[in-house]
C-alpha cells in the first residue's frame, strides 16, 4: 500500500491545519529574501554609480593635467610683447614679500626678469629682515623696475598691503621669495585680461613639490565658488587681479597669521568674475625652512575664515528653544554654557528650565526658570525643547510631547549605560539624539535619529596665547575620580615648575573640597589651589599655561569613572598648551598628536621634565599641533552647526504641520 494511503485521519487534519500558516510563512520568508536582495542590489548599483563618478572625475582630472603638461612643455608662447618706456605706468605690479630669505630670493627675482612681458614693476617688501637680504639685492636694484622697501616686522599680510598701497600697475600679481615663475606667465595673463574687459581675476597652472599634493603635483582646477569656500585650491603665486578690487574689497586681513591669501581670494571672487587660464604659472617649493606653515597655526585662522563665510538664515521669526537641565547654572558644567553661548551667536532665543539647585552658581547668559516644567513651556512658548543628559531626557521628553514640542537631547560623555540609551530611543517624543563618537559602541542597532558630535570649547574665551612653559595647569571638578593626588604629587617632585589646580565644587559632593585641602597639607605639595574661579579668570590661566596635566583615576583603580571628552582638554589645546593625560583609549583618541599619555605618576613627571630640553622649534611645533587639533575638530561654531541645523528643520516641520492643520 502506498505511504500516502496509510496516513491516519488525525495526521491528515493536522497537515490541513498547518498548510495555511506554512504557506503564509513561506510567502513571508520569500518576500523578506526578495526585499533583502532588492536592497543589496540597490546598494550595489549605488556603489557602482559612485565608482563610475569617481572614474569620470579621475579621467577629467587626467585630461586637465595632460593639457597643463602640454602647455608647460611648449616652453614658449605666441603672445606679443612690448617694451615699457620710462614714462609709461607698468602693466603689472608684482608684490614680493620677504623676511630673512637672502639665500632664496634671487631665484624668485630672476624668474621675474625672465618674463617675456616686460611691462612690470617689482616691489620687494622686506618684513623686518635681519640677515643680509638688502646687500644681496644691490645688483638687482640697478633695474629701475625693481624697488626695495624695508618695513618693521608686521607679518606677511601687512607686507603685501604695503605693496598694494604703492602699486601702480593695472594688474596685481604676487610672488613669494621661495618660489619662481615660468617665463610666459605674465604675457599669458596679460593676453587673457586684454581679451576680456569683464574679467576681474584669474589664475594659472602651478607645479608643486609638496608632499600634501603627492597625488596632484600639477594644480589647475576649474573655478568653483563652493569648492573654494570649502578649501583653497588657488595659489596666490599664480593669482592675478585688477587693481580696482583692492578699493572694492580691501587688502589682506592683517589679523590672520595664516591663510590671508585664501581670505583675499574668497573676497575677490565672491561677486566678481574669475577663471583659470591655460598658462604655466609658478613652481611652488615647499621643501624650504622657515615657511609660515612651520611657525604659524592653521586651525585658528581656518576657523576665523569659516566665521566670515557663515551666513545666518533669514527667518520669519527667531527660533526659540527651551533647555531642560537638571541643575543650572552650575559653575562646573562649562560645556552647557559653551553650547548656549554659541547658540546665542547663531541667533537662537534661549531660556533654561532647571530642576534642582546648584553648588556654585554664576551669572547665566540666559533667563532661568524653575518650578513646573509645563508652566515654563506655556509661558515661554518655545519651538522645541533641548535636554542635557540621557538620564533626565525620558521624563522631560514625555512632558514636552504632551505639549506638542519636538525634543532633542545632548548626551554627556560619562553616560555609558546601554539600557538607559535603549530606553530613551524607545521614547517616541525624541526627535534627535547627539552622542559622543565613542558612545557608538553602546548602540544595539543603527538609528537615524542619532548624530555623533564631539566636545566643543568656547572660541571667544580660549585662543592661542603666549605661554609660560613652566606653568602646569589642571582645571577640574572637585570629585575623587579626577585623581587630584597625582597632580599634587607631581608638583612635589618637580619644584622648578609652577603647578596650579583650579577646582570647582560639585553639587552634592561639596565636602570633597575640604578633602583636597587636607591632601595638599598631608603631601606637603607646593601646588597652588584655587576653588570656584569664574570662567573668564580660569580662561586666563588656561591661556597662560604651557602644559596641561589632565588627571583621572585609572580604569583598574578605586573611584574610576567613565571618561568622555573632557572640555578642559579642548580648551587647553585651543590655547596651544602641551597636553599630558592618562593612558586611556578615550583620551588617546581625543588628544591625538597634540600631547602625550602616561600610565602612572613616574611617566607623567618624566614627560613634564622632558620639556626642559625642548628648543623653541619643538615647543612651537607642539603648540601648533594643539591649536590645529582644537580648532579643526572642537571649535564651537563649527561642531555645533548640525545641532542648529536640526533645530531649524524641526521648527520648519512644526510650522508646516500647523499650517496644514489650519488649512
Automatic annotation (TrEMBL):
Residues 34-61 form a coiled coil. It holds the Pfam family Glyco_trans_4_4. CDD domains: Glyco_tranf_GTA_type. InterPro entries: Glyco_trans_1, Glyco_trans_2-like, Glyco_trans_4-like_N, Glycosyltransf_2, Nucleotide-diphossugar_trans. Residues 461-595 form the Glycosyl transferase family domain. Residues 361-450 form the Glycosyltransferase subfamily 4-like N-terminal domain. Residues 93-220 form the Glycosyltransferase 2-like domain. Keywords: Coiled coil, Transferase. It comes from the Bacteria. GO terms for molecular function: glycosyltransferase activity. The keyword Coiled coil applies. This is Glycosyltransferase. It comes from Pseudolysobacter antarcticus.
Amino acid at each position: 500500500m502506498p505511504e500516502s494511503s496509510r496516513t491516519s485521519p488525525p495526521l491528515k487534519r493536522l497537515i490541513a491545519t498547518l498548510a495555511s500558516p506554512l504557506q503564509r510563512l513561506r510567502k513571508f520568508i520569500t518576500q523578506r529574501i526578495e526585499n533583502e536582495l532588492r536592497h543589496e542590489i540597490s546598494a550595489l548599483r549605488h556603489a557602482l554609480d559612485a565608482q563610475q563618478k569617481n572614474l569620470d572625475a579621475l579621467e577629467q582630472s587626467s585630461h586637465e593635467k595632460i593639457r597643463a603638461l602640454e602647455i608647460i612643455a611648449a616652453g614658449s608662447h605666441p603672445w606679443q610683447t612690448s617694451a615699457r618706456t620710462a614714462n609709461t605706468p607698468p602693466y603689472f605690479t608684482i608684490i614680493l614679500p620677504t623676511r630673512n630669505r637672502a639665500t632664496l630670493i634671487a631665484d624668485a627675482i630672476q624668474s621675474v626678469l625672465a618674463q617675456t612681458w616686460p611691462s612690470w614693476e617689482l616691489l620687494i617688501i622686506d618684513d623686518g629682515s635681519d640677515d643680509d637680504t638688502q646687500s644681496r639685492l644691490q645688483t638687482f636694484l640697478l633695474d629701475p623696475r625693481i624697488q626695495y622697501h624695508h618695513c618693521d616686522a608686521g607679518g606677511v599680510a601687512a607686507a603685501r598691503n604695503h605693496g598694494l598701497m604703492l602699486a601702480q600697475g593695472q594688474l596685481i600679481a604676487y610672488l613669494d621669495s621661495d618660489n619662481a615663475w615660468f617665463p610666459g606667465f605674465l604675457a599669458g595673463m596679460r593676453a587673457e585680461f586684454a581679451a576680456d574687459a569683464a574679467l576681474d581675476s584669474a589664475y594659472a597652472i602651478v607645479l608643486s613639490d609638496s608632499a600634501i599634493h603627492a597625488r596632484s603635483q600639477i594644480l589647475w582646477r576649474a573655478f568653483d565658488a563652493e569648492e573654494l569656500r570649502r578649501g583653497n585650491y588657488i595659489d596666490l603665486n599664480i593669482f592675478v587681479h585688477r587693481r580696482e578690487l583692492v578699493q572694492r574689497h580691501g587688502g589682506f586681513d592683517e589679523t590672520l597669521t595664516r591663510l590671508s591669501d585664501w581670505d583675499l581670494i574668497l573676497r575677490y571672487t565672491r561677486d566678481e568674475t574669475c577663471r583659470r587660464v591655460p598658462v604655466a604659472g609658478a613652481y611652488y617649493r615647499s621643501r624650504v625652512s622657515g615657511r609660515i606653515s612651520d611657525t604659524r597655526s592653521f586651525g585658528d585662522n581656518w576657523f576665523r575664515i569659516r566665521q566670515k563665510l557663515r551666513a545666518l538664515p533669514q527667518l520669519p521669526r527667531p527660533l526659540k528653544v527651551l533647555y531642560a537641565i537638571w541643575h543650572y547654572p552650575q559653575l562646573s558644567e562649562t560645556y552647557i554654557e559653551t553650547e548656549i553661548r554659541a547658540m546665542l551667536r547663531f541667533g537662537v532665543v534661549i531660556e533654561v528650565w532647571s530642576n534642582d539647585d546648584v553648588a556654585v552658581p554664576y551669572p547665566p547668559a540666559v533667563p532661568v526658570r524653575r518650578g513646573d516644567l509645563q508652566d515654563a513651556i506655556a509661558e515661554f512658548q518655545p519651538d522645541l525643547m533641548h535636554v542635557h543628559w540621557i538620564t533626565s531626557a525620558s521624563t522631560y521628553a514625555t512632558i514636552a510631547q504632551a505639549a506638542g514640542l519636538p525634543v532633542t537631547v545632548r548626551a554627556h560623555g560619562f553616560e555609558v549605560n546601554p539600557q538607559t540609551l535603549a530606553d530613551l530611543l524607545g521614547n517616541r517624543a525624541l526627535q534627535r539624539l547627539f552622542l559622543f563618537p565613542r558612545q557608538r559602541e553602546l548602540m544595539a542597532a543603527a538609528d537615524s535619529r542619532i548624530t555623533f558630535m564631539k566636545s566643543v570649547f568656547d572660541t571667544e574665551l580660549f585662543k592661542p596665547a603666549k605661554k609660560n612653559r613652566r606653568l602646569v595647569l589642571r582645571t577640574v571638578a572637585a570629585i575623587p575620580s579626577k585623581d587630584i593626588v597625582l597632580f599634587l604629587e607631581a608638583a612635589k617632585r618637580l619644584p622648578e615648575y609652577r603647578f596650579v589646580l583650579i577646582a570647582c565644587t560639585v553639587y552634592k559632593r561639596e565636602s570633597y573640597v575640604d578633602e583636597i585641602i587636607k591632601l595638599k597639607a598631608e603631601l606637603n605639595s607646593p601646588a597652588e589651589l584655587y576653588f570656584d574661579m569664574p570662567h573668564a579668570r580660569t580662561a586666563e590661566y588656561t591661556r597662560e599655561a604651557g602644559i596641561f596635566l589632565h588627571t583621572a583615576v585609572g580604569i583598574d583603580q578605586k573611584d574610576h569613572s567613565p571618561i568622555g571628552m573632557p572640555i578642559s582638554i579642548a580648551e587647553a589645546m585651543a590655547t596651544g598648551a602641551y597636553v599630558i593625560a592618562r593612558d586611556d583609549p578615550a583620551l588617546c583618541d581625543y588628544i591625538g598628536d597634540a600631547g602625550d599619555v602616561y600610565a602612572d605618576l613616574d611617566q607623567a613627571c618624566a614627560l613634564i621634565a622632558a620639556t626642559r630640553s625642548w628648543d623653541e622649534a619643538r615647543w612651537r611645533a607642539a603648540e601648533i599641533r594643539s591649536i590645529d587639533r582644537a580648532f579643526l575638530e572642537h571649535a564651537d561654531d563649527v561642531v555645533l552647526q548640525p545641532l542648529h541645523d536640526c533645530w531649524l528643520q524641526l521648527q520648519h516641520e512644526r510650522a508646516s504641520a500647523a499650517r496644514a492643520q489650519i488649512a
